[in-house]
Amino acid sequence: MIHQAMPDQAAPARSAAGDPALTDALQRIVGPAHVITDPAMLEGYVADRTGRWRGTTAAVVRPADTAEVSAVLACCHDAGAAVVPQGGNTGLVGGSVPLHGEVVVSTSRLTAIDNVDPVGRTLSAGAGVTVAAAEEKARRHGLTLGIDLASRDSATLGGIVSTNAGGLRMIRYGDTRSRLLGVEAVLADGRVLTRWKALTKDNVGYDLPGLLAGAEGTLGVVTRVLMKLSEPAGETAVALAGIPDVGEGLALVRALEHAGLIIEAAELMTRDGMRLVGDHLRLRAPLDVDAPYAVLVEVSGPAVQQDALLSVLAGRADAVLDAAVEHGPARRLWQYREAHTESVGVASSTPPVKLDVSTPLSRIEAFLGELGPGLSEHFPGVRPVCFGHFADGNIHVNLMDVEPAQQEAITDHVLRLVARHGGSISAEHGVGRAKLPWIALGREPVDLAVMDAVRGALDPARMLNPGLFHWAAAAHRGGDGAVLGRMLPG
Ligand SMILES: Cc1cc2nc3c(=O)[nH]c(=O)nc-3n(C[C@H](O)[C@H](O)[C@H](O)COP(=O)(O)OP(=O)(O)OC[C@H]3O[C@@H](n4cnc5c(N)ncnc54)[C@H](O)[C@@H]3O)c2cc1C
Hints:
Blueprint: H1 20-30, E1 35-36, H2 39-46, E2 60-61, H3 66-79, E3 83-86, E4 103-106, E5 113-117, E6 122-126, H4 131-140, H5 157-163, H6 170-173, H7 176-179, E7 180-186, E8 192-195, H8 208-212, E9 221-228, E10 237-243, H9 246-258, E11 262-270, H10 271-281, E12 293-300, H11 305-315, E13 322-327, H12 331-338, H13 340-347, E14 353-358, H14 364-378, E15 383-387, E16 394-400, H15 407-420, H16 445-458, E17 476-477, E18 483-484
Parallel strand pairs: 2-4, 3-4
Antiparallel strand pairs: 1-2, 5-6, 6-9, 7-8, 7-9, 10-12, 10-13, 11-12, 14-16, 15-16, 17-18
Helix pairs in contact: 1-3, 10-13, 14-15
Bound molecules: flavin-adenine dinucleotide.
Protein backbone atom coordinates (compact mmCIF):
# COMPACT_ATOMS: atom_id res chain seq x y z
CA MET A 1 0.00 0.00 0.00
CA ILE A 2 1.37 3.41 -0.91
CA HIS A 3 0.56 5.84 1.85
CA GLN A 4 -0.93 8.91 0.24
CA ALA A 5 -1.34 12.32 1.75
CA MET A 6 -4.62 12.34 3.58
CA PRO A 7 -6.02 14.55 6.27
CA ASP A 8 -5.79 13.16 9.78
CA GLN A 9 -5.90 14.50 13.28
CA ALA A 10 -2.21 13.95 13.84
CA ALA A 11 -1.08 16.51 11.31
CA PRO A 12 -3.51 19.35 10.76
CA ALA A 13 -3.54 20.64 7.20
CA ARG A 14 -1.33 23.73 6.83
CA SER A 15 -2.91 25.42 3.86
CA ALA A 16 -0.36 28.23 4.01
CA ALA A 17 2.18 25.83 2.46
CA GLY A 18 0.62 26.41 -0.97
CA ASP A 19 0.17 30.15 -0.53
CA PRO A 20 1.71 32.11 -3.47
CA ALA A 21 2.78 34.85 -1.04
CA LEU A 22 4.82 32.28 0.90
CA THR A 23 6.40 30.99 -2.31
CA ASP A 24 7.35 34.56 -3.24
CA ALA A 25 8.86 35.15 0.17
CA LEU A 26 10.87 31.91 -0.01
CA GLN A 27 12.12 32.86 -3.48
CA ARG A 28 13.33 36.18 -2.14
CA ILE A 29 15.40 34.31 0.48
CA VAL A 30 17.01 31.56 -1.59
CA GLY A 31 16.53 32.81 -5.14
CA PRO A 32 13.82 31.65 -7.60
CA ALA A 33 15.97 28.78 -8.92
CA HIS A 34 16.01 27.17 -5.51
CA VAL A 35 12.29 27.05 -4.80
CA ILE A 36 11.04 24.09 -6.82
CA THR A 37 7.34 24.10 -7.65
CA ASP A 38 7.29 22.31 -11.02
CA PRO A 39 5.35 19.05 -10.42
CA ALA A 40 7.76 17.02 -12.59
CA MET A 41 10.75 18.23 -10.58
CA LEU A 42 8.98 17.68 -7.26
CA GLU A 43 8.60 13.98 -8.00
CA GLY A 44 11.94 12.93 -6.47
CA TYR A 45 11.13 14.72 -3.21
CA VAL A 46 7.60 13.50 -2.51
CA ALA A 47 8.15 9.73 -2.63
CA ASP A 48 10.65 7.48 -0.92
CA ARG A 49 12.76 4.65 -2.32
CA THR A 50 10.76 1.84 -0.77
CA GLY A 51 7.71 2.83 -2.81
CA ARG A 52 5.61 2.78 0.36
CA TRP A 53 5.35 6.50 0.98
CA ARG A 54 4.15 9.20 -1.36
CA GLY A 55 2.93 12.68 -0.51
CA THR A 56 2.59 16.14 -1.97
CA THR A 57 4.22 19.48 -1.50
CA ALA A 58 3.70 22.93 -2.91
CA ALA A 59 7.41 23.71 -2.75
CA VAL A 60 10.86 22.28 -2.16
CA VAL A 61 13.26 24.92 -0.85
CA ARG A 62 17.02 24.50 -1.21
CA PRO A 63 18.84 27.01 1.02
CA ALA A 64 22.56 27.61 0.53
CA ASP A 65 23.67 28.05 4.14
CA THR A 66 22.56 28.22 7.76
CA ALA A 67 21.48 31.86 7.47
CA GLU A 68 19.16 30.98 4.59
CA VAL A 69 17.76 27.94 6.45
CA SER A 70 17.09 30.24 9.39
CA ALA A 71 15.25 32.78 7.22
CA VAL A 72 13.26 30.00 5.48
CA LEU A 73 12.13 28.46 8.75
CA ALA A 74 11.20 31.82 10.26
CA CYS A 75 9.21 32.62 7.12
CA CYS A 76 7.36 29.26 7.19
CA HIS A 77 6.75 29.61 10.92
CA ASP A 78 5.21 33.06 10.55
CA ALA A 79 3.06 31.81 7.66
CA GLY A 80 1.89 28.74 9.60
CA ALA A 81 3.42 26.38 7.03
CA ALA A 82 4.81 23.11 8.34
CA VAL A 83 8.20 21.86 7.18
CA VAL A 84 9.75 18.46 6.45
CA PRO A 85 13.57 18.44 6.43
CA GLN A 86 15.02 16.18 3.76
CA GLY A 87 18.57 14.96 3.13
CA GLY A 88 19.29 12.14 0.69
CA ASN A 89 15.75 10.73 1.05
CA THR A 90 17.16 7.24 1.67
CA GLY A 91 15.30 6.79 4.96
CA LEU A 92 13.30 3.58 5.20
CA VAL A 93 10.47 4.66 7.53
CA GLY A 94 8.78 7.45 5.57
CA GLY A 95 10.13 10.31 7.72
CA SER A 96 11.43 12.48 4.88
CA VAL A 97 8.25 12.43 2.77
CA PRO A 98 5.82 15.40 2.96
CA LEU A 99 2.63 13.40 3.53
CA HIS A 100 0.53 16.42 4.44
CA GLY A 101 1.62 19.03 1.92
CA GLU A 102 4.45 20.38 4.08
CA VAL A 103 7.19 22.57 2.60
CA VAL A 104 10.28 20.41 2.02
CA VAL A 105 13.53 22.00 3.18
CA SER A 106 16.25 20.13 1.31
CA THR A 107 19.87 20.17 2.46
CA SER A 108 21.13 19.37 -1.04
CA ARG A 109 23.11 22.63 -1.27
CA LEU A 110 24.71 22.39 2.18
CA THR A 111 27.60 20.43 0.73
CA ALA A 112 30.70 22.26 1.91
CA ILE A 113 33.29 20.27 3.82
CA ASP A 114 34.77 23.09 5.87
CA ASN A 115 37.65 21.40 7.55
CA VAL A 116 39.39 18.19 8.51
CA ASP A 117 41.56 18.50 11.60
CA PRO A 118 43.98 15.57 11.44
CA VAL A 119 45.37 16.34 14.92
CA GLY A 120 42.04 16.71 16.73
CA ARG A 121 40.60 14.08 14.38
CA THR A 122 37.45 15.93 13.43
CA LEU A 123 35.55 16.77 10.28
CA SER A 124 33.24 19.76 10.04
CA ALA A 125 30.83 19.83 7.15
CA GLY A 126 27.46 20.88 5.86
CA ALA A 127 24.47 18.63 6.58
CA GLY A 128 24.03 17.85 2.88
CA VAL A 129 27.46 16.25 2.45
CA THR A 130 27.04 12.57 1.62
CA VAL A 131 28.53 9.85 3.79
CA ALA A 132 30.68 8.74 0.83
CA ALA A 133 32.04 12.26 0.26
CA ALA A 134 32.83 12.73 3.96
CA GLU A 135 34.57 9.35 4.07
CA GLU A 136 36.61 10.16 0.98
CA LYS A 137 37.75 13.43 2.55
CA ALA A 138 38.61 11.73 5.84
CA ARG A 139 40.59 9.04 4.00
CA ARG A 140 42.70 11.70 2.31
CA HIS A 141 43.93 12.50 5.81
CA GLY A 142 44.42 8.85 6.71
CA LEU A 143 41.27 8.78 8.88
CA THR A 144 37.74 7.38 8.69
CA LEU A 145 34.27 8.73 9.49
CA GLY A 146 33.47 5.35 11.03
CA ILE A 147 29.87 5.33 9.76
CA ASP A 148 29.18 3.29 6.66
CA LEU A 149 25.95 2.09 5.10
CA ALA A 150 24.95 0.76 1.70
CA SER A 151 23.16 4.07 0.99
CA ARG A 152 26.46 5.94 1.44
CA ASP A 153 26.37 7.67 -1.98
CA SER A 154 23.09 9.46 -1.21
CA ALA A 155 22.62 9.44 2.59
CA THR A 156 23.76 12.73 4.11
CA LEU A 157 25.51 13.70 7.33
CA GLY A 158 22.37 15.57 8.44
CA GLY A 159 20.34 12.44 7.67
CA ILE A 160 22.57 10.02 9.55
CA VAL A 161 22.61 12.38 12.54
CA SER A 162 18.83 12.81 12.45
CA THR A 163 18.21 9.07 12.28
CA ASN A 164 21.20 8.20 14.51
CA ALA A 165 22.23 5.72 11.83
CA GLY A 166 24.13 2.61 12.86
CA GLY A 167 25.30 0.79 9.78
CA LEU A 168 27.88 -1.75 8.81
CA ARG A 169 30.71 -0.50 11.08
CA MET A 170 28.76 0.25 14.22
CA ILE A 171 30.21 -2.75 16.02
CA ARG A 172 33.64 -1.12 15.60
CA TYR A 173 33.04 2.63 15.76
CA GLY A 174 29.67 3.09 17.48
CA ASP A 175 26.51 4.79 16.20
CA THR A 176 26.30 8.30 14.73
CA ARG A 177 25.30 9.89 18.03
CA SER A 178 28.48 8.63 19.67
CA ARG A 179 30.55 10.22 16.87
CA LEU A 180 28.83 13.60 16.88
CA LEU A 181 30.86 16.24 18.71
CA GLY A 182 29.05 19.37 17.63
CA VAL A 183 26.04 20.56 15.73
CA GLU A 184 24.52 23.66 14.22
CA ALA A 185 20.76 23.47 13.79
CA VAL A 186 17.91 25.82 13.04
CA LEU A 187 14.90 25.62 15.35
CA ALA A 188 11.31 25.79 14.11
CA ASP A 189 11.07 29.56 14.60
CA GLY A 190 14.36 30.24 12.80
CA ARG A 191 16.67 30.57 15.81
CA VAL A 192 20.10 29.02 15.30
CA LEU A 193 21.34 26.59 17.96
CA THR A 194 25.10 26.09 17.91
CA ARG A 195 26.93 23.61 20.15
CA TRP A 196 30.34 23.36 18.52
CA LYS A 197 33.22 22.10 20.63
CA ALA A 198 35.91 19.80 19.29
CA LEU A 199 36.15 18.21 22.71
CA THR A 200 35.79 14.61 23.76
CA LYS A 201 35.09 15.73 27.32
CA ASP A 202 32.62 18.56 27.81
CA ASN A 203 30.09 18.22 30.61
CA VAL A 204 28.40 21.62 30.63
CA GLY A 205 24.70 20.91 30.71
CA TYR A 206 22.47 18.68 28.64
CA ASP A 207 23.78 16.78 25.62
CA LEU A 208 21.95 18.79 22.96
CA PRO A 209 23.80 17.31 19.96
CA GLY A 210 22.88 13.89 21.37
CA LEU A 211 19.25 15.01 21.62
CA LEU A 212 19.14 16.13 17.99
CA ALA A 213 20.67 12.80 16.97
CA GLY A 214 17.77 10.47 16.28
CA ALA A 215 15.17 13.29 16.47
CA GLU A 216 14.18 12.57 12.84
CA GLY A 217 13.85 16.26 12.02
CA THR A 218 11.31 17.04 14.76
CA LEU A 219 13.52 19.31 16.88
CA GLY A 220 15.48 21.32 14.33
CA VAL A 221 17.00 21.32 10.87
CA VAL A 222 20.63 20.27 11.20
CA THR A 223 22.76 22.50 8.98
CA ARG A 224 26.35 21.67 9.99
CA VAL A 225 27.99 18.86 11.92
CA LEU A 226 31.29 18.33 13.69
CA MET A 227 32.11 14.62 13.51
CA LYS A 228 34.74 12.60 15.28
CA LEU A 229 37.17 10.77 12.96
CA SER A 230 39.08 7.58 13.76
CA GLU A 231 42.05 5.56 12.67
CA PRO A 232 40.85 3.22 9.91
CA ALA A 233 41.58 -0.47 9.94
CA GLY A 234 44.84 -1.46 8.28
CA GLU A 235 44.87 -4.82 6.54
CA THR A 236 41.58 -6.69 6.84
CA ALA A 237 40.26 -10.13 6.00
CA VAL A 238 36.71 -11.23 5.37
CA ALA A 239 35.07 -14.60 5.90
CA LEU A 240 31.69 -15.73 4.70
CA ALA A 241 30.78 -18.79 6.73
CA GLY A 242 27.85 -21.17 6.52
CA ILE A 243 26.52 -21.99 9.99
CA PRO A 244 23.71 -24.10 11.40
CA ASP A 245 22.28 -21.51 13.80
CA VAL A 246 22.63 -17.95 15.10
CA GLY A 247 24.32 -19.18 18.28
CA GLU A 248 27.26 -20.41 16.21
CA GLY A 249 27.48 -17.00 14.52
CA LEU A 250 27.78 -15.27 17.88
CA ALA A 251 30.24 -17.91 19.12
CA LEU A 252 32.38 -17.34 16.01
CA VAL A 253 32.48 -13.58 16.63
CA ARG A 254 33.50 -14.22 20.22
CA ALA A 255 36.21 -16.68 19.21
CA LEU A 256 37.65 -14.16 16.74
CA GLU A 257 37.77 -11.50 19.46
CA HIS A 258 39.34 -14.00 21.84
CA ALA A 259 42.06 -14.63 19.24
CA GLY A 260 42.96 -10.92 19.39
CA LEU A 261 41.25 -9.88 16.16
CA ILE A 262 39.22 -6.69 15.92
CA ILE A 263 35.72 -7.15 14.52
CA GLU A 264 35.17 -4.56 11.80
CA ALA A 265 31.76 -5.89 10.77
CA ALA A 266 29.56 -8.90 11.53
CA GLU A 267 26.49 -9.55 9.39
CA LEU A 268 23.91 -12.31 9.40
CA MET A 269 22.12 -13.63 6.33
CA THR A 270 19.78 -16.53 5.73
CA ARG A 271 19.64 -19.22 3.08
CA ASP A 272 16.65 -17.49 1.44
CA GLY A 273 18.40 -14.13 1.35
CA MET A 274 21.58 -15.61 -0.14
CA ARG A 275 19.54 -17.31 -2.86
CA LEU A 276 17.67 -14.11 -3.62
CA VAL A 277 20.92 -12.16 -4.09
CA GLY A 278 22.46 -14.99 -6.14
CA ASP A 279 19.45 -15.01 -8.47
CA HIS A 280 19.29 -11.23 -8.75
CA LEU A 281 23.00 -10.69 -9.46
CA ARG A 282 23.46 -14.06 -11.21
CA LEU A 283 26.22 -15.02 -8.79
CA ARG A 284 27.55 -18.47 -8.10
CA ALA A 285 26.84 -19.76 -4.58
CA PRO A 286 29.90 -18.76 -2.52
CA LEU A 287 29.78 -21.88 -0.33
CA ASP A 288 29.64 -25.59 -1.08
CA VAL A 289 27.00 -26.22 1.56
CA ASP A 290 23.42 -25.02 1.64
CA ALA A 291 23.58 -23.74 5.24
CA PRO A 292 20.52 -22.28 6.97
CA TYR A 293 22.48 -19.15 7.90
CA ALA A 294 25.59 -17.37 6.66
CA VAL A 295 27.69 -14.86 8.58
CA LEU A 296 30.02 -12.35 7.04
CA VAL A 297 32.77 -11.18 9.37
CA GLU A 298 35.46 -8.65 8.58
CA VAL A 299 38.44 -8.54 10.93
CA SER A 300 41.57 -6.49 11.43
CA GLY A 301 44.30 -6.44 14.02
CA PRO A 302 47.99 -6.86 14.59
CA ALA A 303 47.98 -10.58 13.77
CA VAL A 304 48.28 -11.70 10.14
CA GLN A 305 44.53 -11.52 9.74
CA GLN A 306 43.87 -14.04 7.06
CA ASP A 307 45.92 -16.71 8.85
CA ALA A 308 44.38 -15.88 12.21
CA LEU A 309 40.93 -15.94 10.68
CA LEU A 310 41.58 -19.29 9.03
CA SER A 311 42.88 -20.80 12.22
CA VAL A 312 39.81 -19.68 14.21
CA LEU A 313 37.54 -21.10 11.50
CA ALA A 314 39.52 -24.36 11.49
CA GLY A 315 39.15 -24.54 15.28
CA ARG A 316 35.37 -24.42 14.87
CA ALA A 317 35.21 -26.87 11.96
CA ASP A 318 32.64 -29.01 13.77
CA ALA A 319 30.15 -26.09 13.71
CA VAL A 320 31.19 -23.94 10.76
CA LEU A 321 29.81 -25.87 7.79
CA ASP A 322 31.91 -24.17 5.10
CA ALA A 323 33.67 -20.83 4.68
CA ALA A 324 35.15 -18.59 1.99
CA VAL A 325 37.93 -16.19 3.00
CA GLU A 326 39.31 -13.17 1.14
CA HIS A 327 41.63 -10.26 1.86
CA GLY A 328 39.78 -7.00 2.47
CA PRO A 329 38.00 -5.14 1.03
CA ALA A 330 36.62 -8.42 -0.37
CA ARG A 331 33.95 -6.78 -2.47
CA ARG A 332 32.97 -10.13 -3.99
CA LEU A 333 31.94 -11.51 -0.60
CA TRP A 334 30.46 -8.22 0.59
CA GLN A 335 28.10 -7.99 -2.36
CA TYR A 336 26.13 -10.96 -0.98
CA ARG A 337 25.25 -8.78 1.99
CA GLU A 338 25.07 -5.36 0.38
CA ALA A 339 22.75 -6.44 -2.43
CA HIS A 340 20.09 -7.73 -0.02
CA THR A 341 17.99 -4.53 0.04
CA GLU A 342 17.97 -4.21 -3.73
CA SER A 343 17.29 -7.93 -4.30
CA VAL A 344 14.36 -7.92 -1.89
CA GLY A 345 12.90 -4.87 -3.64
CA VAL A 346 13.16 -6.50 -7.06
CA ALA A 347 11.82 -9.90 -6.00
CA SER A 348 8.80 -8.72 -4.03
CA SER A 349 5.49 -8.36 -5.86
CA THR A 350 4.52 -5.51 -3.49
CA PRO A 351 6.65 -2.80 -1.84
CA PRO A 352 8.45 -4.79 0.88
CA VAL A 353 7.52 -4.15 4.50
CA LYS A 354 10.83 -3.35 6.20
CA LEU A 355 11.02 -3.73 9.94
CA ASP A 356 14.38 -2.89 11.42
CA VAL A 357 14.41 -4.29 14.96
CA SER A 358 16.81 -5.41 17.65
CA THR A 359 16.71 -7.94 20.44
CA PRO A 360 19.15 -8.79 23.21
CA LEU A 361 21.86 -11.06 21.74
CA SER A 362 20.64 -13.95 23.83
CA ARG A 363 17.15 -13.67 22.27
CA ILE A 364 17.94 -13.42 18.52
CA GLU A 365 17.75 -17.15 17.99
CA ALA A 366 14.44 -17.51 19.82
CA PHE A 367 13.01 -14.46 18.05
CA LEU A 368 13.89 -15.78 14.60
CA GLY A 369 12.74 -19.26 15.61
CA GLU A 370 9.27 -17.94 16.41
CA LEU A 371 9.10 -15.41 13.58
CA GLY A 372 9.13 -17.82 10.63
CA PRO A 373 6.48 -20.28 11.84
CA GLY A 374 4.26 -17.46 13.13
CA LEU A 375 4.33 -15.69 9.77
CA SER A 376 3.63 -18.93 7.87
CA GLU A 377 0.65 -19.65 10.09
CA HIS A 378 -0.94 -16.19 10.08
CA PHE A 379 0.28 -14.75 6.77
CA PRO A 380 0.71 -17.63 4.31
CA GLY A 381 2.23 -16.43 1.04
CA VAL A 382 4.35 -13.75 2.67
CA ARG A 383 8.08 -14.37 2.21
CA PRO A 384 10.32 -13.13 5.04
CA VAL A 385 14.00 -12.39 4.49
CA CYS A 386 16.00 -11.50 7.58
CA PHE A 387 19.50 -10.07 7.62
CA GLY A 388 21.43 -7.47 9.55
CA HIS A 389 24.12 -6.34 11.92
CA PHE A 390 23.45 -9.28 14.22
CA ALA A 391 26.37 -8.82 16.59
CA ASP A 392 24.65 -5.56 17.62
CA GLY A 393 21.42 -7.53 18.06
CA ASN A 394 20.05 -5.85 14.93
CA ILE A 395 17.90 -7.77 12.45
CA HIS A 396 16.25 -6.25 9.37
CA VAL A 397 13.01 -8.17 8.91
CA ASN A 398 12.02 -7.74 5.25
CA LEU A 399 8.61 -9.05 4.27
CA MET A 400 7.89 -9.67 0.60
CA ASP A 401 4.57 -10.13 -1.18
CA VAL A 402 2.55 -8.51 1.60
CA GLU A 403 -0.91 -7.57 0.36
CA PRO A 404 -1.75 -3.93 1.14
CA ALA A 405 -4.57 -4.98 3.46
CA GLN A 406 -2.13 -7.11 5.48
CA GLN A 407 0.50 -4.45 6.13
CA GLU A 408 -0.74 -3.20 9.45
CA ALA A 409 -1.53 -6.65 10.85
CA ILE A 410 1.81 -8.11 9.85
CA THR A 411 3.71 -5.14 11.27
CA ASP A 412 1.76 -5.54 14.48
CA HIS A 413 2.54 -9.26 14.59
CA VAL A 414 6.30 -8.76 14.16
CA LEU A 415 6.68 -5.77 16.47
CA ARG A 416 4.76 -7.45 19.28
CA LEU A 417 7.01 -10.48 18.94
CA VAL A 418 10.02 -8.17 19.19
CA ALA A 419 8.58 -6.57 22.32
CA ARG A 420 7.94 -9.98 23.87
CA HIS A 421 11.61 -10.80 23.38
CA GLY A 422 12.68 -7.61 25.13
CA GLY A 423 13.75 -5.92 21.89
CA SER A 424 13.35 -2.53 20.24
CA ILE A 425 10.87 -1.86 17.43
CA SER A 426 13.45 0.44 15.82
CA ALA A 427 17.13 -0.44 15.97
CA GLU A 428 18.60 2.13 13.59
CA HIS A 429 16.15 3.37 10.96
CA GLY A 430 13.96 5.40 13.30
CA VAL A 431 10.22 5.47 13.91
CA GLY A 432 9.07 7.68 11.04
CA ARG A 433 5.54 7.05 9.84
CA ALA A 434 6.06 3.33 9.52
CA LYS A 435 6.21 2.55 13.24
CA LEU A 436 4.45 5.48 14.83
CA PRO A 437 1.37 3.51 15.96
CA TRP A 438 3.64 1.03 17.78
CA ILE A 439 5.91 3.45 19.60
CA ALA A 440 4.26 2.64 22.92
CA LEU A 441 5.59 -0.91 22.58
CA GLY A 442 9.03 0.61 23.05
CA ARG A 443 8.52 3.42 25.55
CA GLU A 444 6.67 3.90 28.84
CA PRO A 445 3.98 6.61 29.18
CA VAL A 446 6.15 8.93 31.28
CA ASP A 447 8.99 8.53 28.80
CA LEU A 448 6.62 9.53 25.96
CA ALA A 449 5.39 12.50 27.99
CA VAL A 450 8.94 13.74 28.63
CA MET A 451 9.79 13.46 24.92
CA ASP A 452 6.61 15.36 24.09
CA ALA A 453 7.54 18.10 26.57
CA VAL A 454 11.00 18.45 25.03
CA ARG A 455 9.47 18.81 21.60
CA GLY A 456 6.90 21.27 22.90
CA ALA A 457 9.66 23.42 24.39
CA LEU A 458 11.51 23.67 21.06
CA ASP A 459 8.58 23.65 18.64
CA PRO A 460 5.31 24.38 20.47
CA ALA A 461 3.27 24.60 17.25
CA ARG A 462 4.73 21.30 15.89
CA MET A 463 5.84 22.96 12.67
CA LEU A 464 8.75 20.57 12.06
CA ASN A 465 7.82 17.17 10.71
CA PRO A 466 4.35 17.33 12.31
CA GLY A 467 3.43 13.82 11.18
CA LEU A 468 6.24 12.25 13.23
CA PHE A 469 6.55 11.47 16.92
CA HIS A 470 2.95 12.39 17.38
CA TRP A 471 2.16 10.54 20.52
CA ALA A 472 -1.60 10.93 20.21
CA ALA A 473 -1.40 8.61 17.22
CA ALA A 474 0.81 6.26 19.17
CA ALA A 475 -1.65 4.89 21.69
CA HIS A 476 -2.06 1.32 20.66
CA ARG A 477 -4.18 -1.50 21.91
CA GLY A 478 -2.42 -4.54 23.30
CA GLY A 479 -3.56 -8.08 22.55
CA ASP A 480 -5.61 -8.06 25.72
CA GLY A 481 -7.32 -4.85 24.65
CA ALA A 482 -5.27 -2.69 27.00
CA VAL A 483 -4.14 0.64 25.64
CA LEU A 484 -0.37 0.75 25.50
CA GLY A 485 0.85 4.25 26.11
CA ARG A 486 -1.23 7.25 26.99
CA MET A 487 -3.00 9.60 24.65
CA LEU A 488 -1.24 12.92 24.77
CA PRO A 489 -2.48 16.19 23.40
CA GLY A 490 -0.95 16.81 19.99
C1 LIG B 1 20.32 0.49 0.52
C2 LIG B 1 20.09 1.12 1.87
C3 LIG B 1 20.86 0.71 2.94
C4 LIG B 1 20.68 1.29 4.20
N1 LIG B 1 21.45 0.84 5.24
C5 LIG B 1 21.31 1.41 6.45
C6 LIG B 1 22.12 0.95 7.56
O1 LIG B 1 22.92 0.03 7.45
N2 LIG B 1 21.95 1.58 8.74
C7 LIG B 1 21.06 2.62 8.92
O2 LIG B 1 20.97 3.16 10.02
N3 LIG B 1 20.29 3.05 7.90
C8 LIG B 1 20.39 2.48 6.68
N4 LIG B 1 19.60 2.91 5.63
C9 LIG B 1 18.58 3.97 5.86
C10 LIG B 1 19.04 5.41 5.53
O3 LIG B 1 20.08 5.42 4.57
C11 LIG B 1 19.47 6.13 6.80
O4 LIG B 1 18.35 6.29 7.64
C12 LIG B 1 20.10 7.52 6.57
O5 LIG B 1 20.60 7.99 7.79
C13 LIG B 1 19.15 8.55 6.01
O6 LIG B 1 19.89 9.67 5.54
P1 LIG B 1 19.26 10.67 4.46
O7 LIG B 1 20.20 11.78 4.26
O8 LIG B 1 18.87 9.93 3.25
O9 LIG B 1 17.99 11.19 5.25
P2 LIG B 1 16.48 11.33 4.73
O10 LIG B 1 15.99 10.02 4.26
O11 LIG B 1 16.37 12.47 3.82
O12 LIG B 1 15.75 11.70 6.11
C14 LIG B 1 15.64 10.78 7.16
C15 LIG B 1 15.02 11.48 8.38
O13 LIG B 1 15.90 12.48 8.87
C16 LIG B 1 15.32 13.78 8.73
N5 LIG B 1 16.39 14.65 8.24
C17 LIG B 1 17.19 14.47 7.14
N6 LIG B 1 18.10 15.45 7.07
C18 LIG B 1 17.89 16.27 8.13
C19 LIG B 1 18.51 17.45 8.62
N7 LIG B 1 19.56 18.01 8.00
N8 LIG B 1 18.04 18.02 9.75
C20 LIG B 1 16.99 17.47 10.41
N9 LIG B 1 16.35 16.36 10.00
C21 LIG B 1 16.81 15.77 8.87
C22 LIG B 1 14.15 13.63 7.78
O14 LIG B 1 13.13 14.57 8.05
C23 LIG B 1 13.71 12.20 8.07
O15 LIG B 1 12.90 12.15 9.21
C24 LIG B 1 19.72 2.32 4.38
C25 LIG B 1 18.95 2.77 3.28
C26 LIG B 1 19.13 2.16 2.03
C27 LIG B 1 18.30 2.68 0.89
